[in-house]
């Protein structure tokens, strides 16, 4: 129900033109209000706290839609943040994102490197050991990633006393962010595959559509396998009873989804040919997000290492570890 309602809003409000406008520095207010104003930020809050009480498995299709439409706002992060803080803890209504890491310097400053949507976030929620910190984007010094239309930025606060400590589950931030970005990647890759398949069926070369050539069919088949595997892993990460995913399934999901990005994006652009690299064509709105979200909160190397460490520490066989992970 919620996924369908959100997709209706995204179809109307998050058009490719709207994405381009926000990426170019236009106001995100209309799109943010369309989603936040409808109450979707509180999806994971219990009903007695004014939320929707959405079970975690039902959050996956919602996040996948955000990826499918290349939503240029941290709406998924804002939803996730409300699951991290203790019940009854209020969070600001503005654009809020999650920091992958927090570093303290000897001069008393705080830095959050490579924050997704850090270029426009009004608030940042970060884990500082076993505590959650809420930081204001208005007082942050932002250093953009330097990539064309990237929304990633490193944020620095000169005075650590500006941070507000919030009660909540700081340890759950990393696995929730990993699962969240795995879902975003799965949704975006699904849309990229659909666009590529449609183009190959429509584009005629040497008297027949590209999709009729065996070499093209092979590339599409591999692409479909990668997207399906990433989607299954991402969905599995949300199969938990609580409000946040478990670490190991989230690690597997982010590793599998991130690993698929390069092959999926490269194949999509290759099969689209010259049109696929143009700024006017919508494919690049998605593939740029794929590369950005691949690195968000750790690439496949980071999460594969966590999975490997868990395997080495487990007192069980590899087959049993895979079955129960």
Automatic annotation (TrEMBL):
Residues 1-75 form the Acyl-CoA dehydrogenase/oxidase N-terminal domain. Residues 179-312 form the Acyl-CoA dehydrogenase/oxidase C-terminal domain. InterPro entries: AcylCo_DH-like_C, AcylCo_DH/oxidase_C, AcylCoA_DH/ox_N, AcylCoA_DH/ox_N_sf, AcylCoA_DH/oxidase_NM_dom_sf. Keywords: FAD, Flavoprotein, Oxidoreductase. Pfam families: Acyl-CoA_dh_1, Acyl-CoA_dh_N. It comes from the Bacteria. Its cofactor is FAD. Belongs to the acyl-CoA dehydrogenase family. This is Acyl-CoA/acyl-ACP dehydrogenase. It comes from Ramlibacter alkalitolerans.
């Amino acid at each position: 129900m919620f996924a369908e309602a959100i997709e209706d809003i995204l179809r109307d409000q998050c058009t490719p033109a709207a994405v381009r406008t926000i990426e170019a520095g236009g106001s995100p207010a209309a799109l943010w209000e369309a989603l936040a104003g409808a109450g979707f930020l509180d999806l994971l809050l219990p009903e007695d706290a004014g939320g929707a009480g959405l079970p975690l498995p039902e959050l996956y299709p919602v996040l996948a839609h955000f990826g499918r439409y290349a939503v240029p706002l941290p709406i998924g992060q804002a939803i996730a943040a409300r699951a991290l803080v203790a019940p009854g803890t209020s969070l600001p209504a503005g654009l809020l994102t999650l920091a992958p890491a927090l570093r303290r310097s000897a001069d008393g400053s705080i830095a959050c490197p490579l924050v997704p949507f850090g270029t426009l976030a009004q608030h940042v929620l970060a884990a500082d050991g076993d505590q959650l910190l809420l930081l204001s984007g208005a007082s942050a010094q932002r250093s953009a990633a330097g990539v064309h239309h990237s929304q990633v930025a490193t944020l620095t606060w000169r005075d650590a006393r500006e941070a507000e400590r919030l009660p909540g589950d700081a340890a759950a931030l990393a696995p929730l962010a990993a699962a969240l970005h795995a879902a975003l990647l799965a949704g975006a890759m699904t849309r990229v595959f659909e666009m590529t398949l449609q183009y190959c069926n429509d584009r005629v070369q040497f008297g027949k559509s590209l999709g009729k050539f065996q070499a093209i069919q092979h590339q599409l088949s591999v692409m479909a396998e990668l997207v399906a595997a990433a989607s299954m892993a991402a969905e599995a990460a949300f199969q938990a009873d609580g409000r946040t995913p478990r670490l190991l399934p989230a690690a597997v999901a982010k590793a599998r989804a991130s690993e698929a990005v390069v092959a999926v994006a490269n194949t999509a652009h290759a099969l689209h040919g010259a049109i696929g690299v143009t700024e006017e064509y919508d494919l690049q709105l998605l593939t740029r997000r794929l590369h950005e979200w691949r690195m968000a909160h750790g690439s496949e190397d980071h999460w594969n290492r966590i999975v490997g460490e868990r395997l080495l520490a487990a007192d069980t066989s590899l087959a049993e570890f895979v079955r129960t992970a």
